[in-house]
Amino acid sequence: MKKSLKLVLLNSTLVVGLMATVLSAVQAPVLGKSKETSYLIAFKKDNLPNDFEEQIEDAGGEVETVVEEIGIVSASSDDPNFLDKLRESTDVLAAEEELEIHLDEEDPEAADGQPITDIPQPDWDDPDQNYHDLQWDVKRVTHDFDSHEISKGDSDTVVGIIDTGLDFDHPDLKKNADEKGSKTFVPGTDDAWDENGHGTHVAGTIAADGKVLGIGPKLTVRAYRVFGATGGAQQSWITDALVAAANDKVDVVNMSLGGWRWMAQNYGEKGDSASIVAYKRAVQYAVKKGVTVVVAAGNDSRDLGSLHDMQEYWKDTYGLDIKGPSRVVPAQLPGVITVSSSNEWSKDQIAFYSNYGNPIDIAAPGGDNGPEYDALYREDPKGDYLDKRDFRYRALSTWPTYLPPYFTSNLKGYAYMHGTSMAAPKVAGIAAVIKSEHPNYSPAQVAALIRKTAVDYGKKGQDKYFGAGEANIFEALED
């Protein structure tokens, strides 16, 4: 079955469907406009002009978010001519309606694969009970946890997770989760607690230390919350969060999110869109501050290096004939480590949903639905065979203890999920452990060691599916 897509206001949609769990958004046709619209503005210089607020007000807008370090501002206006007026300013590089990402959970349908119910529920009073043997993905990239004998990371090394927040009281995370340093960028919220589950799952992969184990069980994880329980995340919130994480001197950032963007600020125009400018500047800012930025490749089964494949995406999904190039960001930005998703059962094929192409730097286990489903999907991507899904091939990690179980199992506090969202934090954890062992390494040096010590899957050498291969922290520590 093809993934479910939903068109919403503010040029947004979520590409988290039946195939994947990466948080995504695309620039889609507008079906309607509220009285007041949000806009993203990229000024020509990183340092904002002294009168930027006055310029926005004179055009009929009101400033909402200011990311002064990189010259990015969001504003709201009910004036239909706001953009035209604003673009008259020689200080403005690009401006557009602001894009927003929305959460949309996978839908367990009647013909769906059955939830896993034969795993014992967690007994928090039993320190000997654990699910380590079920963590095929973490076991593989740690050489059956052997890397933990060399290094588990350290608490001084911080991974910033730009996502839905964290369950700071989860028994497997509370020793490592930095609630005090965490921040929310969601208006109307005053904390970074996870009301969705995605961020907690990502955090467990990186630093869990309990019934499940992360890549670096002694690392510190910090939440930069940009999603509510069901609401969206505006581009400016994500950009602001990345800049804030860099200012907070985190060592690594994990971004299991992303989306499709037209290169031009409006269809048919030339020049980067404001959203691409914002992403580029934020990543460059973070990298210059010494932050290694790890991102998910996305879950559209598309070749990110093929103009035809990307144009076909727009045609298949929205019926739009896009003549010019588009990009998945931040996956296709310079300076990031872009991660595709491998699976448990094959060293030749990546997960069926994973994007691929020349932007891929490395692969990591993100799980899938098993070889039977994979074969059916590759034969007919639009077929209906949800009953063939085997959730045991997905990745097990932490889940908020106060939320209902995720539909793939009846477990409390843990969940099986899949997607490049689950692959990226493996690499973020690896990068952080490397950084804990080599504090002076630059982001480029960290990335180089990850590539150098990857296990070569697929075609020999660099390829468009696995990049340099599947990341492996044991090999990196042994190098």
Automatic annotation (TrEMBL):
<feature type="domain" description="Peptidase S8/S53">
    <location>
        <begin position="155"/>
        <end position="469"/>
    </location>
</feature>
<dbReference type="InterPro" id="IPR023828">
    <property type="entry name" value="Peptidase_S8_Ser-AS"/>
</dbReference>
<dbReference type="InterPro" id="IPR008357">
    <property type="entry name" value="Lanit_process"/>
</dbReference>
<dbReference type="InterPro" id="IPR000209">
    <property type="entry name" value="Peptidase_S8/S53_dom"/>
</dbReference>
<keyword id="KW-0720">Serine protease</keyword>
<protein>
    <submittedName>
        <fullName>S8 family serine peptidase</fullName>
    </submittedName>
</protein>
<feature type="region of interest" description="Disordered">
    <location>
        <begin position="102"/>
        <end position="129"/>
    </location>
</feature>
<keyword id="KW-0378">Hydrolase</keyword>
<feature type="active site" description="Charge relay system">
    <location>
        <position position="163"/>
    </location>
</feature>
<comment type="similarity">
    <text>Belongs to the peptidase S8 family.</text>
</comment>
<keyword id="KW-0732">Signal</keyword>
<keyword id="KW-0645">Protease</keyword>
<dbReference type="InterPro" id="IPR023827">
    <property type="entry name" value="Peptidase_S8_Asp-AS"/>
</dbReference>
<feature type="active site" description="Charge relay system">
    <location>
        <position position="421"/>
    </location>
</feature>
<dbReference type="InterPro" id="IPR015500">
    <property type="entry name" value="Peptidase_S8_subtilisin-rel"/>
</dbReference>
<feature type="active site" description="Charge relay system">
    <location>
        <position position="198"/>
    </location>
</feature>
<dbReference type="InterPro" id="IPR050131">
    <property type="entry name" value="Peptidase_S8_subtilisin-like"/>
</dbReference>
<dbReference type="InterPro" id="IPR036852">
    <property type="entry name" value="Peptidase_S8/S53_dom_sf"/>
</dbReference>
<dbReference type="InterPro" id="IPR022398">
    <property type="entry name" value="Peptidase_S8_His-AS"/>
</dbReference>
<dbReference type="Pfam" id="PF00082">
    <property type="entry name" value="Peptidase_S8"/>
</dbReference>
<feature type="signal peptide">
    <location>
        <begin position="1"/>
        <end position="27"/>
    </location>
</feature>
